[in-house]
Every structure is written in C-alpha cells, then in structure tokens.
Design brief:
The chain has 13 helices and 15 strands. By secondary structure, the protein is an alpha+beta fold.
C-alpha cells in the first residue's frame, strides 16, 4: 500500500535517474580518534550499529514501485525490517592511506547506483588513514533527502562534548515532533480565496521576473559582461554528456586566509572561493588546450531576503556569475568576480519571493533541457559549473569521542555539467568537494591542487598591491 507521495521536485530527481546521471548526494567526514581509542574501534562501532538498532523515518522509507522510477503515483512506504548489514559497511584503505587513496575509494563508492529496492542510503566506515584517522562516507538519493538537509541530520549524530560516547547515529534517532499548528501553517487548506490569492501573486511575480530577465537581455546587448544570462556560457571540455564513473577530490583552507583575501579584494569569502575555482579551471583547461576566450560562468544557489519578507525568513534563489577565466591576474580576476556576483544579487534584491523563484526557474530551465538524451552534446551549456556554498557547524564536533577534522560534500554532476563544486564551512575551515564525471573531467584531482596554489598566488599578488599602495 502506498504511503506518502513524492513532491514534484523529488519526482524530478527520480525521473532524472539513469545509469549515467545518478541523483545521489553524499558527504565525506574525516575523524581523529582519542588517545584511549580501542584498536578495533571501527569494528566494534559497526557491530554495535548493526545490532538490533531501530531505524526511524526517513531512513526506513523505500519506494513503492522501485522498478518504475517514473511512476506518476510513486510514493514512499515503510520498510519494516531495514537490513543494517547492507546499509552500514566497513572498508580499509591500502597503504599509505593518504588523501589520494581516500579520494579513489570515495570515487568508486560514489559511482555505484543506489538500490531502490531498499531505503536509498548507505554509510561506509573507512579505516587505514595516516595517523590512525578514519573516515565516514555516506550517500543518499536526493529524492529522499536533499544534500543540505541530510548534512543537518547527520550533524545530529555528532556531539559538542568529546566525552559524549553515546550519541546515536542519524538513522537511529526519531524525527523531531511538529505541532499541529505548525503543520497547518505550513500546509494551509486549499480554499478558493487562497487559490485566487496565489494566482494574483503569481501574475504579479511573472511581470517582475519578466522585467528582471529583460534587464539581463539589455545588459547582454549593451556588452555589459558583469550581468550574466542563461545560455551565454562557452562550450568546454567539461560540458558534455556524462558517464556513470565519478571522480572526487578535496581541498581545505583556514577560513581566516579567505577572510583576509575578501577584505583586501572588497568582496566576500564566497567571491574569493569563486575566483580561486575560476583560476584553477583556467589552468586546467589551458593545459588541455580547451580554454575558451569567453569567461566560464557558474550557477550559485543563494539565500536572499525578498522585498515582501517582513524579516526573519530566507528565500533560496539562483544567480549566474562570471568566473573570469579570461583574466590571467588573480587580483583582477577576483575584482571581476566581485562585480559579477554583486550585480547578480542586485537583480534579486528588489523581487518578491515568487518572482525570485520564477526568475531562478528561468535561469535553470536550460539545464532541464540538457537532460534529454543527446541534448548535452549539441546544446550550448546553460552555465559551465555549479558552485554551492553550504554553511556548516562553527564549533568542533565529535563522534564517540573522535574529533571531526573535515567535512566534505559529495555532489551530483549532470548531463552537460560534468563538474560540481560544493563548499562547506566547518569550525574555522572551508572544505571544498570537487565531484565530476571521470570521462568529462579526467585528472580531476588537479583542480583541487590548483585551487590551493591559486589561494597562495592571490595572497602574493594582493600583498604586493598593498605594499605598492
């Protein structure tokens, strides 16, 4: 019997699931055990988690008809007996157990499709890292829980106290109760008055979104490159139909380094991250003889305060910005990125919540079209790369006394978008996960290396500029 129906967005992620375009997200967490850790810590931990642990929603939900992902009546049903032997796994790295070996293993694990006959998630404990450390890699299908929510739920399994050794795993915690009042406010009755109100709001929002899109068109015609429009990205080596194989690489920076660069460059930490990624992509594509004359563009999910928000709320929209890959000097590239993101955010600042969503949908529409078979091979890309910045915990976290050293997001490449860059803040650090198609972005780990070198180059150039000033 069917249970809770899927939302429109969840159904989209299932419909987009193919052998090549797998719609699961994940995370890689690296831990340092305490001095008194048992030599067989991970073995005992895995055995404990598999032994008669109750599994709560949403982690006990599976698809009603897993053979028919595009079933319009698709729904979630409870799995009465979750097989934790399958969902909780233990692996070990070959020596020397460095970041490269870890990246190779996570790349392989992320290349394996989700089994929809079971609740669509897995957790892998990985031992054998240098210095006695271990890692936890988890993946979950986007239709069950999105990446941001899954990271928040995973954080509930971690403690602020290093002496806390009893915090249950995310799947063994009951969901937080919601009051009936909150549920009613979140899902009001569909009365005629509300329907008419929604229609009036959407008509007004359509006009606002239309004006915003025309602003982009006029800026493009006038040669204003700071305001980026959809379908204006150049075709590159990374913008093609993808295969099922994945590559994953990581980079970590102290947040104070990027904050100092942001102050010196007159932008934000996110602007610095974009400029650094732009520099890494410029070098990567140049080495392969595929650097276009036009600058690459990035799509950024952003939180904005709409004009109809009385305060306290957030709205999520999408903006496009230039990565200034046509600019060689790091400081000049940062200035170009700052100008582009500032102009894009100004576009959204004067819009209502509904208009923001419609404008963002217009920017994202070409990406949906690129998922049609063979379309990514001939369509001009909607944008070249997705760059997401997800805020994370500001204080150190612990799992059974083990300190969390790094928290890297593992995301989704799409047809036409062979590379995804996701940034996660944690305890004074910026953690970057580069997820890509192995065939569209070969030697992806070089992007992580180059981004680290770009930070140093930007520091050097801005220091010289300050001294000269």
């Amino acid at each position: 019997m069917a249970g809770k129906k899927l939302s429109v967005f969840d159904a989209f992620f299932l419909a987009a699931e193919t052998r090549e375009a797998m719609m699961h997200v994940g995370g890689l967490l690296i831990f340092s055990p305490p001095a008194d850790a048992h030599p067989q810590l991970l073995r005992h931990l895995a055995d404990e988690l598999r032994d008669s642990v109750a599994v709560y929603a949403p982690w006990n939900l599976r698809l009603w008809t897993p053979e028919l992902l595009k079933n319009p009546l698709q729904a979630w049903v409870e799995e009465p007996q979750v097989d934790l032997e399958y969902h909780v796994r233990r692996s070990a790295l070959p020596a020397p157990g460095d970041e490269r070996e870890l990246g190779i293993l996570v790349s392989r694990l992320h290349s394996i499709p989700i089994d929809f006959h079971r609740p669509p998630w897995e957790v892998h404990f990985i031992e054998g890292l240098e210095g006695g450390r271990f890692a936890m890699y988890f993946k979950i299908h986007h239709a069950l829980v999105d990446g941001y929510t899954s990271m928040k739920l995973l954080a509930r399994s971690l403690a602020h106290d290093p002496d806390d050794r009893d915090t249950p795993m995310f799947f063994a915690r009951p969901p937080r109760a919601r009051s009936i009042t909150a549920e009613v406010e979140a899902d009001p009755a569909p009365t005629l008055e509300r329907v008419l109100e929604a229609v009036r709001g959407q008509l007004s929002a359509t006009r606002e979104a239309g004006r915003a899109i025309m602003n982009v068109v006029r800026a493009q015609r006038a040669g204003d490159r700071t305001l980026v429009g959809p379908m204006g990205a150049p075709k590159t080596l990374i913008n093609r139909r993808i295969s099922r194989n994945r590559r994953f690489a990581t980079q970590q920076y102290p947040i104070d380094r990027l904050r100092a660069l942001a102050r010196a460059g007159g932008g934000t930490i996110n602007d610095v991250a974009l400029a650094v990624c732009g520099g890494a992509l410029r070098r990567y594509l140049h080495e392969r003889g595929g650097l276009p004359l036009e600058p690459l563009t990035a799509m950024l999910p952003v939180n904005v305060r709409p004009k109809d928000d009385p305060g306290g709320g957030n709205a999520v929209g999408a903006i496009l910005c230039s990565l200034a890959t046509d600019v060689e000097a790091p400081a000049e590239r940062l200035a170009a990125v700052v100008a582009s993101t500032r102009r894009a955010k100004e576009q959204l600042a004067g819009l209502s919540r509904s208009a923001i969503m419609q404008y963002s949908a217009a920017l994202m529409a070409p990406l949906v079209m690129q998922q049609v078979p063979t379309a990514a091979s001939w369509m001009r890309p909607a944008f070249n790369v997705v760059v997401s910045n997800v805020p994370g915990p500001e204080q150190p976290l612990y799992f059974r006394g083990c300190r969390l050293d790094a928290l890297y997001p593992v995301s989704i490449p799409y047809h036409g978008q062979g590379l995804n860059i996701t940034i996660n803040g944690y305890a004074g650090t910026i953690n970057v996960g580069f997820t890509g198609c192995r065939d569209a972005v070969p030697s992806l780990q070089k992007l992580a290396v180059y981004s680290g070198e770009e930070v140093a180059a930007l520091e050097h150039e801005l220091a010289l500029g300050a001294a000269a000033g």
